[in-house]
Amino acid sequence: MNIKRIAKKALRRLGLVPLSSVPATSGIWGGYAHDAIALAQWIDCDRTSLARPQQHPERVDPEIRNRSCNWYLPVFDNAFYGGIMTILRLAAHLQESDCVAQRFLICGECDVKAISKQISEAFPVLRGAEVRSLASASAIQRIPAADYSVATLWTTAYVLLNVTNTGYKFYMIQDYEPLFYPAGSTYAQAELSYRFGFHGIANTQSVRDIYEQKYGGKAVTLSPSVDTSIFYPAGNLESAGPRRLFYYARPGTPRNCFELAVAAFKLLKRRMGDRVEILCAGAAWDPADYGLTDVVTTIGMLPYQQTGDLYRSCHVGLAMMMTPHPSYLPFEMMGCGTLVVSNRNEANTWFLRDGENCLLSEPTASCLAETLADALENYDAYEHIRQRGAAHIHESHSDWKVTMREVAAFMHRPDGLLS
Fold first, then answer.
1. Number of other CB atoms surrounding residue 214 within 10 Å
2. How far apart are alpha carbons 341 and 177 in whole angstroms?
3. Which residues contact 322 (CB under 8 A, 6 or more apart)?
4. Phi, psi (deg, nearest 5) at residue 232
5. Which whole-number Å values give the CA distances from 28 to 25, 31, 32, 40, 190, in the listed order?
6. Are 10 and 108 in contact (CB under 8 A)?
7. 212 CB-near residues (< 8 Å, 6+ apart)
8. pLDDT tens, 98-146?
9. What is the pLDDT of residues 380-397, one digit of tens each?
10. Which of 116, 124, 128 lies closest to 92, judged by CA?
11. How far is CA 240 from the centre of its chain?
């Protein structure tokens, strides 16, 4: 999340103190303080709101097919990637399988027609679903009633907190979002949202454990899967010629450890030279800005349908994550038969198992460079790891319908259906 972008849009939208009136501070966290002050003024709640009961099953229609669901989403640019696509996938399942009407409330200024078009292109069953922009206080006051309401990001949870015309309130938690920020004001605001009393829809068991064990919430696990029509293996790559390494590179997202990767790539290129080709995708950036000219090639954002072909063309895929969700990249790359390398993160060892379905590295540039070189130079010797990874995805993470049915059952009866 780009905190500065959120702050600027929020203040313009709601007429609060403009950023220019917030005094700048110096030091390494000067920019953070500037933006965090703005968010503190915009994203707020009082003790009355926190004390108010959030769940009202008496307001829920007894017939599932007569129910409706309001989704509270941040403004987004691409419906085909990451958490947004998972949200829409669940909405599509509720619409198609259970006849629950879907409505999307975008918490910010947006082009409603463009958002609606993206949603319908990603999931045609959602064509015709209402999309609204919550770009003012009056728009928030006019939110239609719904049986279910779902927050999807900590900022949207603050909007949902004061909504009173709904039955069950849910929180779709796809990572531990306080870790998106340094320990401070914004971290505290994000963490507080886990104490609002919403029922959780937790993307991975690790996230569910945090919500239930640390915050006393009640949640269901949404288990990540992949689209096997896009992410499937295609046999071994040629051993001759340079080895190709793919990296999911997002410079503005600290949890992806871009800085460690930059230092490691310089060491790796020094060691392997023309024997390695490093391709980066996930965001638009200039290698020259990070001293990576002639070290990496960037291809920006690819259409979702083309990502499988990219992964199948690479011997090794690097995806790093320091938060409790491993991201979808390791699932997708394993599904394509790519040898996955990631950082060691105890929260994600339920999925990423060193020497079994991937190779894990300690978080230093030298360790990462050595692990990548090992994976590239001994690609053929690690065929058993690649095969085991692809088999695991096929056996346990290849059918979205299974986990969607479990989540939907929980949403229909959150007070009486838990495992």
1. 12
2. 24
3. 179, 254, 255, 256, 257, 343, 345, 363
4. -145, 155
5. 9, 8, 9, 20, 22
6. yes
7. 200, 218, 219
8. 999 999 999 999 999 999 999 999 999 999 999 999 999 999 999 999 9
9. 999 999 999 999 999 999
10. 124
11. 36
Q: How far apart are CA 368 and CA 64, in angstroms?
A: 51
For residues 126 and 144, what is the distance between their CA atoms, to the nearest angstrom? 18
Strand ranges (DSSP E) for 20-83? Answer: 68-73
E-state strands within 119-178: 130-133, 146-151, 166-173
pTM: 0.91
Determine the 3-state secondary structure of 316 from DSSP. strand
Two structure tokens written together for 310: 């990219």
Strand locations in 227-385, DSSP E? 243-248, 276-281, 297-298, 316-318, 339-343, 359-361
The token duo for 89 is 């996938």
Return phi, psi of residue 244, to 5°: -105, 130
